Amino acid sequence: MNNDKNILQDSHARKHTYLRISLTERCNLRCSYCMPEEGVELSPKSHLMSFDEIYEIAKTFVKHGVTKIRLTGGEPLIRKDISVILKKLATLPVELSITSNAVIIHKYIDVLKQNGIQSINVSLDTLDKNKFMFITKRDQFGIVYANILRLVKEGFNVKVNAVLIKGINDHEIIDFINFTKELPISVRFIEFMPFEGNQWNFKKMVSYKDVMDCVQHSFNSKKIIRLQDSPHDTSKNYSIEGYKGSFAIISSVTNPFCDSCNRLRLTANGQLKNCLFSSTESDLLTPLREGKSIEVIIQKAVLAKFKVRGGMDTLKKLQEPKLHNKNRSMIRIGG
Ligand code: SAM
Ligand code: SF4
Q1: Which of 68, 98, 232, 330 could form a disulfide with 34 if both were Cys (CB 3.0 to 4.6 A apart)?
Q2: Is 27 in the pocket of ligand 2 (CB under 6 A)?
Q3: H or E stretch including 121?
Q4: Could you report the per-residue pLDDT of 22-52, keeping only the tens digit for each?
């Protein structure tokens, strides 16, 4: 290991301070853009990280400068030991947050609060009950909607993530923005990204420009306010004058934010992914179980990080199925 340098700094001078940990490959919804229609081959239970292993790996990252951890999945809240995981990670000096589909989050409000979680990202791609059923294959719109309102009332900082797909939910952009009129939430429109088995095609994607054209068409330009983005923000943030909430666009496809990337990802079976789009992974779980140091492997993986989107640095390359299909499906990465 090169001790002169932080092991979380890559060869493009990016320091990685943010770790996203996937807790499970399973989910209680079946979003078409995330879960391949034929399902996914799940890792055997013995190949998944236990809560102690999650903690041990997280502790190593924190030792080397990680200050923020987000739990994701699959659906992180369906892990039976979620309360123990939260309790253990809450002992680390990090900002802890979670991304959830909110189907069962009402059962965890106290646990989330007790463990210092303040910020929650919730996926909701439509404000229409039938469309929700169409996209997720489950009839859970009512509870997800009610839970978003509940989280806001309980004082959480709530971001609502909506993946836009042409012909499916792109006519709801303004409805979503109007959802922020009385609610202090941030709605984030995410460009549909390609992963193994998700039937992606460029024409289905609603771009940053498409969203802004729609917004400019519907609101007086003087009322559209460009907000200051935070450092490392993946989103471009806006609000409508007088609205309590805001909206944003995450443009990983048309306008990637790789220059300021500070993220690393750990899959539920203990593989380190140095980029969301990377087709390679580094096994941390096996050496951890063998009692070996994982720091050298982490450093090597971080140094191998490509400058842009796992090496798919042009839109042309991103559109190549033989390149983007080498990556796991999103449900097995963890968003
Ligand atoms: N189950 C949780 C949820 O849905 O919020 C956490 C896991 S989910 C994989 C994390 C995020 O990935 C969600 O916000 C989801 O919308 C996003 N996502 C999944 N597939 C995507 C795709 N193909 N393109 C863009 N975003 C995607
Ligand atoms: Fe499940 Fe989240 Fe993927 Fe939807 S986006 S299938 S809720 S993991």
Answers
A1: 330
A2: yes
A3: strand 119-123
A4: 999 999 999 999 988 778 888 899 999 999 9
